[in-house]
Prior knowledge:
The protein has 204 residues and is of the alpha+beta class.
Amino acid sequence: MGRKRKEPVSYDQAGYLGWSMSERAVEAYDKGAMPWSKWTKSALIDGVIKLGGSVCCAAFTHDVLRKRCLKYDSWHHTSLYANPTNFYLIDAKAAAAMTEEAVRAELGDAKVDRIKERAVLEATKRAEKRAEEDAFKAAHVWVPYNKLPEHRIEVTRITKKSKKRVVRVHSLDPSGNEIVSTEEFEQDIYYDKRGFLIPKSELE
C-alpha cells in the first residue's frame, strides 16, 4: 500500500487562519519569530542592532549570521497541508556579543571598513521605512476575514501597472442594512493573509 495522502486544511478551520498558517504561527510571527528560511540577512542585521550588536555584523555571510544568531523558539503548523514548521528567534546574548570590536578582531579592519558605510546607510533606510509602516498601521485597524462579520471587504479590481488590490468596505448600520463605502483605496504591502488593514475613519 502506498503512503496515505495528507488531506489539506479547510479554509478558516478551527485554529487556522485561511489556508496559510495556524493561529499560533501568527502569534509567533507577531513576537518576532520566523522559520529559518524567512530570516533574510537584512532581518538578521536589524535584529542584531536592536539587541545591542553592531551594524558591522553585516560583514559576516548570511549563513554565518543565521547559525550564530538564531535559536529555536517553537514549532507551528503552516501551509495548506498543516506542515510542522520550526520557528526561530534571534538570541539576545549572541547578538549583543557582535560588537564592532569583536567583528573586527575576527574578520579584520579591511573587510569591516569596506562594508560599514554601506551597511549603515541600508540599515538607516530600513529603519525609516519601518517607521512609516508603523505610522500607517497606527491609523488603521485589522479587519480579519473571519472575525468581524459586520464588515466585508470587496476587492473591486487589481491595478494593471502596480498590481495593487483596490478594495471597498461594506458595513452594516445599527438596523442591519448594508452600507457601502463611497471610497476605494489600494492595498499594497499592507495586505495580509489574515485580512486587511482598513483606515479607522472607514469604520467610524
